Amino acid sequence: MSATTNSACGYGWAGALPAKQGLYDPANERDSCGVGFIINIKGIPSHSILRDSEDLLCNMTHRGATGADERDGDGAGVMAAIPHKFMTKAFKELGHSLPPAGHYAVGNLFLHPDEKVRQVSIAAVERIAQSLGLQVAAWRLVPTNSEILGPNGRSREPIVMQPLVIAQDQLAEQEFQRRLFVLRKRAMHESAPDSWFYVCSLAVRNIVYKGLLTPAQVPEYYTDLRDSTFETHFALVHSRFSTNTFPSWERAQPFNWCAHNGEINTLRGNKNWMRAREGLLQSAAFGSQLQSAFPIIDEHSSDSGAFDNVLELLVVSGAMTMPEAVMVMVPEAWQNDPLMPAEKRAFYEWASCVMEPWDGPALFTFSDGRYCGASLDRNGLRPCRYYVTDDDRMICASEVGAVKVDPKSVLQKGRLMPGRMLLVDTLAGTIVDDEELKLQYARQHPFQQWIEEHQIRLEQLKPSNKLADIDDTPVSRDKRLRAFGYSAEQLNLIIGPMVLGGKEPLGSMGNDAVLACLDSTPRLPYEYFRELFAQVTNPPIDPIREKIV
Q1: CA-to-CA distance for 415 and 396, rounded, in angstroms?
Q2: Do 246 and 18 touch, CB atoms closer than 8 A?
Q3: Would strands 393-397 and 34-40 be described as parallel, antiparallel, or unpaired?
Q4: Low-confidence ranges of the chain (pLDDT < 70)
Q5: Are 176 and 198 contacting, i.e. CB atoms less than 8 angstroms apart?
Q6: pLDDT tens digit string along 83-100?
Q7: Cα(546)–Cα(378) distance, rounded to whole angstroms?
Q8: 475 contact partners, CB below 8 Å, separation of at least 6
Q9: Is 258 an annotated catalytic residue?
Q10: DSSP character for 203?
Q11: Residue 388 backbone class (left: φ over 0; alpha: ψ -120 to 50; beta: rest)
């Protein structure tokens, strides 16, 4: 999308957020929510999975939020496998027959209610698709029930349409998905925020239905979800609580690949590093098309949306599988764990050189159609419970009891631990053990050898033997002190005790020194920066876990 602000009506998609003003900055938007999924471990689709996910979503209503009018939610939605039987019926009514499952893509797009603006967006999608060797064979208007919306939701209600995209030539699924990725990124970059254009999802396997809704409104608003031919082997749901921020249609979750509960407190660094490394990114799979997908992270997205953007790039590019990408982005606490296998430690050390952690507190749920799972960050401050039943189903949610289950049918239950991953592989029809999964990826490449050959450590650098010149000038009047921005106070109270006694420079009275940006005397570069603190109050971590993390 364009980075410009809609001064007439606000910021971002459809001007749904207020423009930057006073102490408010839309770049500080965060999410804190309820998430969960239901999946048939063997990958067998059914409508009952979708209906049970409705109960799961509605039973986490208290984890979302509503406006002054209880019909206005902060956002809710569901991700499911593309229901081939339902889509075949729906597009047949429009006079179009579908190719076999996996040979076409479909998704939900938000478009402007104004016909002229909408047609411009539709034409742009068709033009970009044509340039990528794809064809938009048909457009379907998704039936919705606007009567249930509150005033805030109705004021920005988009038209929801489904494009049927097919490849002009035979393409492998991975290549098809890569072209769909470029199509979506280019279309969104070329669209102005006031066009209301947004792609909820556009994929070969998955589809997302979401909006500025309460959990109970999702199946009422999207009547597709109540059709008995809408069959899926998994359903991933999300109820949004927009922490200290403003809700909008496009920030509802799930996103293309994941949903998230918590907030990403390292977000600014994550986004800046991702933007910086775009100049070095190369992909044999994408070729020159990769440049047209920049910036990878949408400027108007929330912290959850930014995570989804990067996860999508890693998976769609073929560089990593989805579980491996989640391991890299949400690593375990590995530095101070003496019991961790050497191969896994080497993998995480290599990963820390490739990408900085996206640290929460955060619980991520994700799916690409084959894999479906959840990962808890190393702080472990977001709840996640799961059941496995005797009818080959797994139920995972932010809290226990979100779906009614006969206790006799429960084969296994537990809670997701810090740094661990819960994963179902529907192709193999199994629940993948966390330790086995991570060791499998850790043994794929000689990570320890790569680190030893390419990483330079401080202890490897030979110190200079040249002695400093010492004269009779008192340290407090040494010109180098002023040249490098140090004061006699810093020398006596901070550096001296650090050198002589190994003490940390801790204080309890605050810092009343003049701000570096307002000081006329030279200051050290790091004095111009201040640490940002989390918006969400988290419980204190015990010292044992704090040492590990």
Answers
A1: 9
A2: yes
A3: antiparallel
A4: 1-18, 23-32, 242-245, 507-511, 531-549
A5: no
A6: 999 999 999 999 999 999
A7: 10
A8: 481, 488, 491
A9: no
A10: B
A11: beta
